[in-house]
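re: ur question from earlier - yeah i can do the single chain one, its not a big deal. heres the input i used so u can compare w yours
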Amino acid sequence: MEVILAALGGGTPNTLTAECLEALKSAGKVIGARRLLQTLPEGVTSERIPAVKPQEILEAISGAESTCVVVYSGDTGFYSGTRSLLPFLQERGIPFRVLPGISSVQLLSARLLRPWQDWNLVSAHGTHCPVAAEVTKGKPTFFLTGGKDTGVQALCTRLTQAGLGDLPITVGEQLSYPEEKITRGTARELAEMSFHPLAVMLAEPAPTQPRRCPGYPDSAFTRGEVPMTKQEVRSAVLSKLAVSPGDILWDVGAGTGSVSVEMALAAPQGEVYAVECNPEGCALIAQNREKFAAWNLHIVEGRAPEALETLPSPDAVFLGGTKGAMEPILRCAVEKNPQVRICISAIALETLSQAIGALNTLGYRVEVSQIAVSRSKGVGKLHLLMANNPVFLITGEKDD
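and the output i got, formated as tokens:
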């Protein structure tokens, strides 16, 4: 008995390779998703078993004496269920072969008369996808879509909310079927439209800025009358939080969003949530997000901790302002992730004491640093140092 993992391409006979067709016609059993079993070409066995999970497929092939063909859509090597089945077959010593097919990315590429070799290939099918972060990689981004929250409409809505409503998008629906359709528009326009579940999406590259070390000049930010964390402190905050490229980050009491922007640029594959209750501050965050092309920065208008309840679990949290709710804010973060890294800024001794006490109560190892920055100012022919307010950074981290 041999198992063949075969790709059906676009789902129509025209996109099925001769190799896969031969395997299907010689099969004793064909196993796969119900939708695929209903579209098999003529001359294929009637013993068709709907199964998609590895254990279900193993049960279906158990005891078989003839060839079993497990079918997949698209290509067996492109975000396919083949990946999850292979280890089970290898562990049991079941002989198998894998036959490739024509993927949806190849079909869309051909329809658009564009090569796909330089595209950023992403699956949003049934999984959380940082859509704004993906389109900032400097390449056209191809998305496999699917599901209520990861369909074309949902992805375009999220791009629009991230400030990328004008981003050009192309959608391919039911590729290779008679009902095939290509739609072009902006993310904002397509967010108002409905699409077939069998759809893929190509987003053009979003505007980006060159990445650099944290600590942009204060003058680079739009400030207004809202307090802003200064350059040297921002740089230290990111260092204390040990921000990694794929982190989920919270900036609570975000003010103008200067720390949020620095976080977003330091975590280009992650997501940053800037929580601010002041509408003027939220408007400034939006301006700075666009100015720095920090499209993976999400603005959450509201007062913490209530505004934090629906946010994803954070890897690290910065508290720049708490409006007297420090303890419940910290509790909320720790409940979502008991190992979350925390940094709190304070200029008052009372806030310093409160932060140390709250972190100790939560079982954190606490470290306090004081940053006292003086900057030169020209007075005639002389340069004098003018001191900024000293800032305490209280870092909390759980022992491994």
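The radius of gyration is 27 Å. not sure if urs matches, ping me
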